[in-house]
Amino acid sequence: MQIDNRRMTRRRRETRERLIDAAYAVFTENGIRAARIEQICDRAGYTRGAFYSNFASKEDLFLAVYEQEMDARRDRLAKAIEDILAVEPPDRVADVPPLLARIAVLFMDNLVADEDWYLLNAEFFAEALRRVDLRESADAAQGRFHDDLARILDDALARLGMRLLVDARDAVQVIVSLYQTALERALFEGIARPEDNRYVTDILPRALSGLIAPAGETPAP
């Protein structure tokens, strides 16, 4: 019986993963509102029954897509920071702004994919703001991602001998807002490379530099 349960768990996990992957493709092609559950099922190779045994609605499926994408971005940011710090550990405060710029460029090394995701993300959260039934789950999913980013940020700054002057979650809100602006400008202006996006290379590092100080420095009254 235990073997059967393990097989069922594995089978269900594989079904969910295929539905999530198919949903990302269909959402990207058609937008979330225009995408139909039948299209997602056809792309994944499953029936509507398989869909509804795993997800309550199309919006529920998008939240699963969102969590998967946010996990990937969290891991990508952590790797970008680790790669930079492994090669160039800074020993002066003056080293931090250009270091942050290099991390931002590495993090946004695939703007095309992120532009697709930005459009889906903006569509979903606009819908969540309109619908009270979606607000709580959307806010909770976003909050978990921001908590992950806050932990990564705190850890990276500690390794640099720095600390935040504001709450880590507030700093993350600033960073995410600038990140979204960078993607908007990339879309409007046709910026293909993050190295050419001044929000990535200049404004974001400057903004974050204003939120940090050396770990041993006493804040001004």
UniProtKB/TrEMBL annotation:
The keyword DNA-binding applies. Coiled coil: none annotated. Gene3D superfamilies: Tetracycline Repressor, domain 2 (1.10.357.10). Residues 13-73 form the HTH tetR-type domain. GO terms for molecular function: DNA-binding transcription factor activity; transcription cis-regulatory region binding. Residues 36-55 bind DNA. Pfam families: TetR_N (PF00440). The keyword Ribosomal protein does not apply. Keywords: DNA-binding. PANTHER family: HTH-TYPE TRANSCRIPTIONAL REGULATOR RUTR, TRANSCRIPTIONAL REGULATORY PROTEIN. This is AcrR family transcriptional regulator.
